[in-house]
């Protein structure tokens, strides 16, 4: 049964493995990211758009686009409904676990290290002892040296670093939609989702919001949850019957 469970998800798991292999060595590039460097508007806008596409401001738009494309690829059938239910369950698990793990690990965000280096706080952990107003004032002070393309995100996310919620969402989309596209031989679409996921991950590093380990942990977590997720095929059949659709209809 476990073998069958994994076999049905081999494409999605393969894509996550590829994502992991690309993200893992990103630590080699992080050392070249200077958070104090000047940022042109094109670069700043591009990384902001990427990170927002997997964050609270834009994840629903991304999700809607991917669901629509999936519907066009496989049609409205029990597979489509089962996949949607799978997606909903893992999104709830992913976002709930993200919040819980952040409080358990209490890993400071990378930008707090810059605050420490600039002698604004004694150590990264001290940032989380400040109240909301003090944190905002601290980031305002460093904003004289750091591009607003970065500090605007710092102001919006003052919680802990591990794991990366944006990478969790990108990994879920890659496993579900990328895997689905591969199963239906739409390799170009799968590649596009993969490139987007990698770019989202790198945007989090570039902004000073995460370390490579945060991304790695997020991908591994999603892979584990996705691998153990039931197919819900019977539920898909039941929903089709309730909606008065014959199970064989594809479009």
Automatic annotation (TrEMBL):
This is undecaprenyl-diphosphate phosphatase. SUPFAM superfamilies: Acid phosphatase/Vanadium-dependent haloperoxidase. Coiled coil: none annotated. Its EC number is 3.6.1.27. It is an enzyme of class 3 (hydrolase). Residues 82-230 form the Phosphatidic acid phosphatase type 2/haloperoxidase domain. Pfam families: PAP2. The chain crosses the membrane at residues 12-33, 53-74, 160-182, 189-209, 215-235. GO terms for cellular component: plasma membrane. Keywords: Membrane, Transmembrane, Transmembrane helix. It catalyses: di-trans,octa-cis-undecaprenyl diphosphate + H2O = di-trans,octa-cis-undecaprenyl phosphate + phosphate + H(+). CDD domains: PAP2_like. One of its GO terms (molecular function) is undecaprenyl-diphosphatase activity.
């Amino acid at each position: 049964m476990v073998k069958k469970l994994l076999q049905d998800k081999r494409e999605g798991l393969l894509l996550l493995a590829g994502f992991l292999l690309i993200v893992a060595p990103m630590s080699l590039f992080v050392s070249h990211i200077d958070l104090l460097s000047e940022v042109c508007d094109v670069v700043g806008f591009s990384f902001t758009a990427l990170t927002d596409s997997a964050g609270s401001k834009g994840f629903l738009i991304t999700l809607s686009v991917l669901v629509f494309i999936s519907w066009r690829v496989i049609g409205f059938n029990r597979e489509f409904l089962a996949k949607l239910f799978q997606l909903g369950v893992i999104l709830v698990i992913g976002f709930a676990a993200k919040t819980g793990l952040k409080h358990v690990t209490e890993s400071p965000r990378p930008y707090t290290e810059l605050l420490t280096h600039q002698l604004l706080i004694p150590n990264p952990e001290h940032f989380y002892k400040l109240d909301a107003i003090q944190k905002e004032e601290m980031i305002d002070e460093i904003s004289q040296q750091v591009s607003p393309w970065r500090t605007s995100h710092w102001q919006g996310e003052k919680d802990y670093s591990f794991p990366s919620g944006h990478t969790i969402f990108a990994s879920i989309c890659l496993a579900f939609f990328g895997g689905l596209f591969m199963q239906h031989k739409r390799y170009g679409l799968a590649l596009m989702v993969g490139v987007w996921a990698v770019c989202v991950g790198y945007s989090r590093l570039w902004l000073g919001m995460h370390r490579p380990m945060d991304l790695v942990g997020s991908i591994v977590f999603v892979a584990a949850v996705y691998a153990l997720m039931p197919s819900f095929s019977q539920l898909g059949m039941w929903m089709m019957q309730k909606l008065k659709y014959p199970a064989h209809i594809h479009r």
